[in-house]
Amino acid sequence: MRCKETVFFFTALALFFCLDACVNANSEDIVAKGPSVDEENPVEVFDSTHTKTFDSMIEVYHPELLFFIGTDKSSARASEKPQMGAKLNYKFYMDVHEFTCGDYKKLDKEFDRLKPNCANDSLPLTDVTYFDAILIANAKSKSLGLDTVYTYTNASFDEENHCTDIEGLVTHLEIEGFRLPTEAEWILSAQLGWDHENSWNNSNSDYKVHAVCSKGFDGTGFCDFSGNVTEWTNDWLGILKDTTITNFTGSTDGGEIGERIIKGGNYNSDKANSNLYSRGDVYSVTSSTMAKYVGFRLALGVIPKPAWFTSNGHISESKIEPIASAATLKSYTGSYNMKLAFRNDVTNNLAFIDYNNGNLKVSEIHDTLNVYHPEISPNGKFVAFSTKPEGIQGESKLYVRELSENFSTPIELQVKSAAIPRWRILENGDTAIVYVTDAGNNSEESSWLAQSTWQVTFANDKFGTPQKLFDGTFHGGIAQDNSLSVTGAKRLRVRYGQKNDIWYSQEQACNVSLAQDGSKRTAFLDFGGKTGQEFVGSHYATHERILIADSTGKLIQSIAAPNGYTFDHTEWVSSTSNLVATLTNINGSHKKIVLVSTVDTSFIDLAEGEELWHPCLWVQPKKIIPKPKSSSSSFAQSSSSSAHAESSSSSTPTLNSSSSTSPQSSSSSEIAQSSSSSEIAQSSSSEKQVPSSSSEQINSSSSSLLAESSSSEVTSSSSVEDSSSSTASSSSESSSSGVPYQINFELDTDSAGVYYKAGQAQVFAEARYKMELLWQYKDKADVVIIGSSRAQHGVAPMELSEEFFGVNLAFIGNTLSGSEFLYDNYIIPHMSKVKYIVSSIDIDRGFNTFSGSFFNGRAKICPGYVYDKDHNYWKDGYPEGLAELTYDSPGISSYANKYRQTRGLDSIPGASVWEEMPQVDSDSNLYRRSPGSYRTNFNSLKKMVETAHEKGIYFIGVVFPQNPNYKKTGAFGRYGIPRSEAPILLQEIADLSKTYPNFILFDENKMGDHDYTGDMAYDRDHLAYPGAIHFTARLDSLLKELPALK
């Protein structure tokens, strides 16, 4: 049993404290020493008579104390504003210090998964993901006989056994077990004796971690909240509001990329920047983020009536958890592109999960409309619903709205009554909605025939003129060829041809749904009727089984509900052989939504909550990329010289990883064919952005428009073809460039182009869209920008003159060694038109080598990169369809909009001012102590320049401007390098032009003596949009002046 006896828990807890022993008798009752040094978040002086301390944890209980989350400082980040009041009316325990390497060693040997690099046991355990931390919390709970707070269905680990993803994660705040503290708990505990003056920070730490509590304890008995290492909390990052919340537990989700909250200062941070309100790091923090300066401490205690903020700022006391990932579902549905819509019966609102858009989360559209029977449109962009459910008589309204978190006005069908909408595609290609005039009981034939079934087209956000189809209410579905219509509640009535009939021996049936995969199967629920029991061969309870009949009404299958549950709200999943249903527990609560396989009768949990009704799962129809008609066009081949297909150096770093293993997609018979070809937008060099997807017809199976990437068309066929893979096929003859063809190669759609998975860190999302741009413009771009976030924010390809076609492939955290990997394996072999390479030269980041780069580490857990590596990065020839598969692969809509419209620029509109004394985030002497790392990056640069020289390509190395006030610090820039040595290093780089005349050092920093003003900057080392425009104009002038290379 998950919920153990209360007596057992307190016995275990008492045993824990006895085992850890050594109660500090002098600190049983502690008085806070005074107000916080954070002047905007003052702390009341109070008598903490309820505070107790144990050897490793302190009891915290201050139910009347008002404290604050966030700040009203104008300089703070948007996510840290406004200041919000908070109270916690419950008791919890908080660790005195961060979880240590010694604490980790005390866990059960079976959990000896990580190999922490700890000099001694008293150091905090760092460089762990959020997932690592919660698994450790679970392990500690188990070691003391407590229930675990975190449950899940599957966990993924990298080569170093760090947990990088957890599927089906549910946090049970009602369980008394070890967990990460909420942000509110962390702030309340930390502020009681906050003292950032006495902390390990960059002024005294020597940029390394120290033993816990080696700076002593604060006035409450805690230590290291304000320094040493930053700490994970349990919460998703979300908005704050100018209000007061009791028992605040963060956001219901972490937004599109799943951002988490970390708290406190660390040995790397400036003492002046250590505060209670900060909630993040330099870059976005997700559950898979790791840093050597980030650890955690644990909390223990039940949180009664937790309160979350939704993305729209509404307070929610119940949370819906998404369970299965897109990757898990794809093995059943054949697609990553899926959406689940349903009714949250607690709020009466429409809720949905977009499986192809970033972090897996539940979005809820807050409205005054009562939503029943949501039905997603054929293209996945709209949802129709009614205001009355099946079995309830009376007038109902029908609405259509965009299926998006962005508010859209519902469009009402102007008829007297319309209920239970069903989308369909008509023979002429129009999109229509079938509805009935009343969804009430159909037992009495005359009253049922008095109502009717109608159809109305929907296009361009408007309804057409409704047309009556027939008498009687057939809201269970109409076959594509119009030969069969079904309905239920309370009789399974059918219209076969022109005749009405009743199936299932006229026994009670409901939740009737007609499959749209062409099989004409009807699924329904019954009340344990005689006919069903005779078919099954045993007794069963009401709604305990899904019954399936063939096109003649003959029962052909029965699927039993899981133990302890019954079914409700069964529906076929669009275009597949799967079903979706809710599961009802013994108390009648609809706790789960599940996918039901009719092939093996297995169940996949989709969502968990209090009351989840009327699910609809939409799956994008399989897009078929046909075999090319002629051998000459079957391979979108690079027109570059044969040298382009060769590896530039035998020492080029490659992904050292085994072949990916992905779940098999469902059979082609389960995949409905595309109703129309995908639209391909022709993109010329003068275009500023890819056309908006609003131009799509509503019945298009394509999720988005793909800009043409080469002179040969990249299209999707409208013809019907049973295939679950993209095929690249061609003649065995070699091309004039010497690049050999591959014959009859089939792309694995589980891996090809899949460069991002939901919930991964920001860098995955950015790199995913840079790979899309690379494949999309491989035969068009002549200016290619590579490098770090400085280049990503600083170069605007669309602002180059029309004679140039630029694409920005830079992304956060990238290094010169990482750029070399991209350059050697993708850019040189495939980007056939490139004439200019523009690369950031970040000498202050020279300690970051390939061993720590994205391509050597994290990329190995993405199927797309591993698949590319296993096929030699397609250097033997580009496989037809890879660009389209990449375009349609999982991603994040906001990133797609940003990078597709700007060709890779991460445009930051807001600008700041240069700080008077900018912080140096790394030890400036690191270069002196470890010059080898810098030399490795320099050699990577040199090899890229040499290769470019051989190909007749200009290589422009850019030193981007940083805060000019670094002149006052003794450091070259944000990440160090002594200023006295920087000119020598820069000169060495500039001297490459003596050997390679194609190389140009474009120094826009000029040791701080530049003309980039504070309003051109985003922060101390990144340009905002005005700065990017300023820089790109100068780059454009330089490019125009360069003579053609021989």
Automatic annotation (TrEMBL):
InterPro entries hit by this protein: CHP02171_FIBSS, CTDL_fold, Sulfatase_Mod_Factor_Kinase, SUMF_dom, SUMF_sf
Key word Cytoplasm present: no
Region of interest (Disordered), ranges: 629-740
Domain Sulfatase-modifying factor enzyme-like: 69-299
The keyword Signal is annotated on this UniProt entry: yes
Swiss-Prot/TrEMBL keywords: Signal
Pfam families: FGE-sulfatase
Signal peptide: 1-25
NCBIfam families noted in UniProt: Fb_sc_TIGR02171 (TIGR02171)
Name of protein: TIGR02171 family protein
Taxonomic source organism: Fibrobacter succinogenes
